[in-house]
Amino acid sequence: MRDRFEAAGAVPVDCAVLQPAEVLLDLYGEDVRTRAFVTVDPVRGEVMLRPDFTVPVVQMHMAEGAEPARYTYAGEVFRRQEDHPERAPEYFQVGYEVFDRADPAAADAEVFATFAEALAPYALRPVVGDIGILTAAVWGLNTTEQRRVALMRHIWRPRRFRALLDRYAGRVPVPASRTALLAADDPMAGAGPMIGLRSEEEIRERIEVLRADAAEPPLADEQVALIETLLKVSEDCPHALEHLRDIAVDMPAIGAAVDRFGARCDAMAARGVDVTHLSFEASYGRTSMEYYDGFVFGFLCAQRPDWPAVATGGRYDALTRQLGQGREIPAVGGVIRTGLLVDLERMREAGQ
Questions:
Q1: What domain range is 181 assigned to?
Q2: 52 among the known binding-site residues?
Q3: Is residue 193 part of a domain?
């Protein structure tokens, strides 16, 4: 697989197995500890076993890479599997990453078509999505910036996102404990000794933020209904595009993102991808690593619905901005879990 990506113009690169934990913690917060193996080096401080290649490849490119650039790599990654103990916490990835600012739609199509060609012998089911349409919808909500930021933070946690949306819409009652806390003249009175890392001043500031939010009117039912309709879009690309354009009439904030989806479909068709039979799911990619912010895709094994996606990928423009120290470049890529391809070949040999 790596040879195929090299033949497509990618430069082979490697990344250290031990990566600085600080970078990923800054990007994703303490939640990343539930997915990565973290340890302490006596000289380098806190480090983690490489959870993926994308972040270190972006760091490398932003520090020294020429433009445009294409990279490929192969090696082990390490992920804790608390929710899926049957899955191996250590497995191989082969990846292909494209950094090119000339034509994002063409780059998306190039990466997807390259993966589709490489995986064609395995009869996997491809699916695409677009996180950028949902983020545009959230930023376009008629509510406070604080609420929009909170919803954005939980886009990759569907249950939390749903709960937060219901709370902002006034669909669930405010817990009695919070009502009492916000109604108190001095919420800190009788709180007892301070425990933990937050100072009293930080706690008081947080309470004031909650009070301000409680005074805000609920999200309009129409806005919530549009978000719900958007998340339910699941059909072939041409019909999904038509459906999303209908939604954009009442939610103009997503118009530009929907146009980008349309341009990507055209670019894919020009690459020989049969978009008329390609599945689009608006919610796809919301449980992956949080750096995808636009186009996302996956290749699934119909015979093994219990497996994770055999290959995944997407666009991560914002990640280059966060790691670029003032510089940024559009970027898109993906990875293949090659061990699952080996398992598929064994299943075929066994006649399964």
A1: 146-219
A2: yes
A3: yes
